[in-house]
Amino acid sequence: MADKTRPNVVGKGPALIREMVEILKEVEGKMGSLSGDAADKVKTVAVDLRDEIEPIVSRAYVKTVKAGETAWDCKEMSLELKEAVDAGDNDKAKELAENIESTLAEFVNKIKTFVVRMT
Fold this sequence. Notes:
By secondary structure, this protein is mainly alpha-helical. It has helices at about 15-30, 35-55, 65-85, 90-115. It is elongated.
């Protein structure tokens, strides 16, 4: 993904994740135009990972700068995925779904393993 200038994302991780979840819900409803393999990959992202990330949005790590940047990137990729699904572009949709899947899996792991240390 090309470097894009990001807005100030400090503390905006939860809002960006919620926006991404809404976009993925829209994508889920429009998957009929994709072929089997691409539709399966998009479904994994649009349903399974979305359901995994929704309950952990309120955790402490999500409000950090790094989480905000990752959430921004995921939201932008999900917008591109939505455009690819709308256009019926199987190859691009599958590629974007794979990118989102790997990024979100790593992101969910960081959120779950993040420990706040107070000294």
